[in-house]
Amino acid sequence: MAFDLxxxxxxxxxxxxxxxxxxxxxxxxxxxxxxxxGKSRTLKIIAIFCILVGSSAGCAIPSLGRRFPALRxxxxxxxxxxxxxxxxxxxxxxxxxxxxxxLGIIVHSIIIGISLGASxxxxxxxxxxxxxxxxxFFEGIGxxxxxxxxxFRLKSTVTMAIFFSITTPLGIVIGIGISSAYNENSPTAxxxxxxxxxxAAGILNYMALVDLLAEDFMNPRVHKSGMLxxxxxxxxxxxxxxxxxxxxxx
Length: 250
Description:
Blueprint: H1 2-25, H2 37-63, H3 76-97, H4 105-118, H5 122-149, H6 154-178, H7 187-217, H8 220-224, H9 226-246
């Protein structure tokens, strides 16, 4: 036991050295170029409502299958939409997180919201509003689809949908509140954000590959239909491509 403890402490010491080196060498300085607090505040408020509506709509669509047959979980259309959402989530992990070392969907959403809320540059915020609304909408569809298929009670479904929908707007509000004191280029902020984003990338990859894609592609109905396999594959690629394209601006 003592040997294992010594080994763990040794590994922690080794892995902490790069972090200490980053903290010692980092001389990042914030830039005030293009900052406009008035315009930024307006855009942040717009972002809160756009992302809240997009997230809520994404989670709500799968639940509408009770009234609209085309949106039921056992239809080809729904399989395609889930594959598209899985593509969006995969691209979020690989394109938007891993390259910048950006814990799951909720932590990831709060981090983006704080970054947007703390920004004072309208040119940075504008493309983020559209990109994040799109991202949260389809991520909400993927999450909503899993919730519907799990057959949770209405109260649990509504609670989970609301909790997901408010994460990014909550992050924006936090970002606005700390914008005067928050320095996104400080060594501490960079290290903490990097660690959380690395964890978020892993969880998003697992969710897209195991919870969404593997379950759908192993479905007997998909195995029996070559056309449905093609539809899901194309939908997956389109979702991945569109979310990757948004990486240019966000």
